[in-house]
Structure formats: structure tokens, C-alpha cells
Amino acid sequence: MQDWDDLVVVARVARPHGRRGEVILNLETDFPEQRFAPGNRVMVKRGAEAEALRVRSVWFMKARPVVGFEGFESIDDAETLAGHELRIPADELADLPPGMFYHHDLVGCRVETAGGDLVGEVVAVEGSGEASRLVVATPRGEELVPLASEMVPVVDARARRIVIAAPDGLLGLNETARSRRERQDWRR
Asked: Which one of 44, 73, 106, 153 is at 20 to 30 Å from 129 when CA atoms are compared?
């Protein structure tokens, strides 16, 4: 069995749905139809040890999956899953097209400018698709960098390196906004 921390989050159980042991999921995957197809397996940690859950049924309500797991037949059973993360081994993730990355592949990457200057390290990725942005920890605080090809021309997840071509004024923008808020708070 893999270590829980090495598994990748694909959903969080929001709440039970109905009386037949089904749950509504908050997704952390772009491939819910594939991931939660009947017969597939996900891991949950409700106590000290992780356990495997096998998907019994799935249907979608307003783009959110309503999933039934084998052995969960009542609302009481389903309530034991509420709030828990569902994870899978990284090697079971769907292959992505070139130029697309999983968030966990980018977290921990070193970020530098096109000139080779160190900016910081990616600590999170916010948003999804074209609205994604890197959260970069820098000596001055966190910087948000839009994950657009014009601003992030190089992503080498294997080498744990990202090169950004930030326009003048982008880096430090968050610091400027913080200073402005602090000045406004002081005046009150």
C-alpha cells in the first residue's frame, strides 16, 4: 500500500445524497466520467489506515458526480464519508496533452526569470484551465503569476523548473496592493 501523502486528491466528499448510500463529490479532477466509472477504485482515510472504495454507481447532477460505493447502502453509511478526501496513486492519473500539467507536478518547482534570476518556489496552483495562476513564495511574500504561455514560456516539471517572462510591474504587484491596503487601514 502506498503512503497516503503520496496519493493524489481527485475529489472531496461534500455530503450524502438520498437514502441509498450515495454521496455528492466536489471534484479535483478534470476527468470525472473516467475516474468515477463503476468498478474503479479510490482511496479514503477515515481512521488511521487508508481503505479502498470501489465505485458501484455514478450519475451527474449539475456537473457534480453523485457516487455510490460498494458496501455503502444507507444514508448512515454515506455520512461516514462526508468531508473526506478521495485519492488515487499518481500512476493512475490520465495522461495529459503536451503543455498541460497537474497542479501537484508544479508545486515545489523553482521559479526563475528568463534572465536566470531566482524568483521563488511554487507553493500552490489556483484556478483551473486558462484561469490558473501560480502562487509563488518569494522573499517578499507570495506572488501570483498567471499560468499563460506568454508569461510562463518554460515549464519543465521533471527538472522542477519554471521560467517566467513577467512584464514590468507584475512581480511586486501583490506587495503594492498589500501596502495600499495597509495605508487605507491606518487611515481608518
From this structure: 44
Report how far residue 50's alpha carbon sits from residue 64's, in angstroms, rounded to the nearest whole number. 24
Residue 48 neighbours by CB under 8 Å, 6+ apart: none
- Residues written for the chain: 188
Helix (H/G/I), strand (E/B), else coil: 128 = coil
For 53-96, what is the HEC assignment? EEEEEEEEECCEEEEEECCCCCHHHHHCCCCCEEEEEHHHCCCC
Residue 32: all three cell numbers together: 470525472
Helix ranges restricted to H, the chain: 32-35, 75-79, 103-106, 173-187
pLDDT tens track for 18-64: 999 999 999 888 788 999 999 999 999 998 889 999 999 999 998 89
pTM value? 0.68
d(CA 87, CA 1) in angstroms, rounded, equals 13
Give the whole-angstrom CA distance, residue 83 versus residue 66. 15
CA–CA dist 118, 139 (Å, integer): 10
Cα(18)–Cα(57) distance, integer angstroms: 13
